[in-house]
Amino acid sequence: MGLVYKTMVCIMGLIAGISGAFMVLPMICAFYYNDMEAVQIFGITGTLSLTIGFCIYKFMPRSRHPMHSRDAYLIVFGSWIVCSLIGALPYFFSGEITSFCDAIFEAVAGFTTTGATALGESNFTEPFILWKAITHWLGAMGILIFVITVLPSMGSGGQRIVAAESPGAGLSATSPRSKDLAKLLYLIYSTLTLSEFILLYFGSDMGAFEALINSLGSISTAGLTFHPSGVAYYNSVFVECVLSVFTILASVNFLLFIYLIKRNFNHIKKSYELRAYLAFIAVTTLFITADLTSTETYQTFGASLRHAFFTVNSFMTTSGLVLSDYNTWPTFSKMILFSMLFVGGCVASTSGSVKMLRILVMLKLVQRGFFKKLHPRSVKAVRIGENNITSAMVSSVTSFIAMYFATFMVASVVIAFSGHDLETSMGAAASLMSTTGASFGEIGASGNYSAFSGPMKLFMSLLMLIGRLEMYTVFLIFLPSFWNPNKFRTG
Asked: Which of 35, 37, 85, 250 is most buried, by CB atoms within 10 Å?
C-alpha cells in the first residue's frame, strides 16, 4: 500500500505557512523596539514561508486514498523537519549565529522545548527572544496538534497524527473527534499561560514583555527566561513559586484538566501516576535538602529547601530552569538530579523523558518478578492503581525503556568522540533526550552547547527530536520495512 505523498506535502505546506504566520508577532515586536533589521528579517522570512506554504496547501491536490499509520509517522517527522528549518532562518539571517548548523540546533531546541543554546553568550534582541519563546509554546503541545485545531476535518487521519506525535498519550480516549479534543487542550494550555502571565505581571516587578517571555518559557517546560542569569536574577520566592507551580501543572497529564472541567473529580483522585509524580518530587526534595544542609552548602535549612525544591522541580518537569549552579553541589545530590533526567513528567504533558507512568509499570514488573521467584506457580497481574495493565502495554513499555537506554548509551559514546569528558558526554545525551537542556560538566546549568562542532550539533538536534517524538516516530522512518512493508510481511 503506497504512501499518500500529496496529502503529506499539503500538510507540510500548511506547517510552513503557520510557521511563517507566527513570525508576524516578533516582527511587530521589532517595530515596537525600533529594530528595523529584525523587522526585515522576520518580514521577508515570514512572508515567503506563509506564501509558499499556503500556496502548496491550497493548490496541491490531495491523495484520494485514506491516511494510514505509516503516512502519519512520515507526516509528523517531515513536519518537524520543515518547521525546524524555517525556524532556523531568522537566527541565521540575524548574524548572531554564523553557522546554519547552529541555527538549526537553536530552532530544534526551541520547538522541542529543550532549554539549550548553541551560543556561549547570547546577544539576541527582544524580537528573537520572543521568536524562541513562541517556538517553545507551539512545540510543547505539538505543532501538528495545533494544525488539527485549524484544519476543517481530518477524520481518522487526525487521530493517527496525534498518536504519532504524542505516543502513549491516550488522547483519543476522552473524545471521539481529535479536532474537538485538540481545541480543548489548546484552550486549557492558553488559559494556563494567561494565568501565569497575570500572576507574574501583577505580582512582581516584571514588565509585560518580560512576564510574557517567562510565562511562555515555563508553561512549555522549556526553561527560557528573559534574563541570561535565569530565575536567580529576580531573587524572589514569589516568582520561583509561580514558575514552579505552572511547570508542575504543565507536566501533569492534560486529560486530568478535562476531567476537572467535567467535574469528574473521582478520576483525578484515582490518578496513581499523579500521586506518584508528586510524591517523587517531595521525596527527592527532602533527600537533596538533607544533603545540602549536612554539607553546609547553604547557610540555613530554608535556603537548602528553597534551592533543592526548585532544582528538583526543574529536572522532573524537564524545564531546565536555573536558580543556582547545582554543579557545585555534593555528588550525592548531583547523582539524584542526573537520575531524574530519566524520569520526567506524566504522559500527555509538555514535559519529556521516559515519563512517570512507564517508570511505574517498570517498577511493577520488577515487583512481580520477585513475587514469581517466591511463588512460581502463581498468577499475578500488573496493576497501576485499580487498573490492570494489559500485556500489550507491558510489552510497549519494556521495549520503549530498553530502546531509550540503548539510544542513550549510543548517543553518549558518539558525543564522547568529540573529545569531551564522561560527565559532559553522558549528561548531554540524557539532557537532550529528555528535552531538559540543563546538564552537567562543561554544559552546565545554562544549557550551553557552544563547545560542540557543527556536525555534532546536528546529531544533537536529532537527539532532541528523538526525545520529543518519543523515538518510535523517528526510528520507524529508518527501517526498511517502513518503506516496503509488503516485502517484510510474514504469513
From this structure: 250
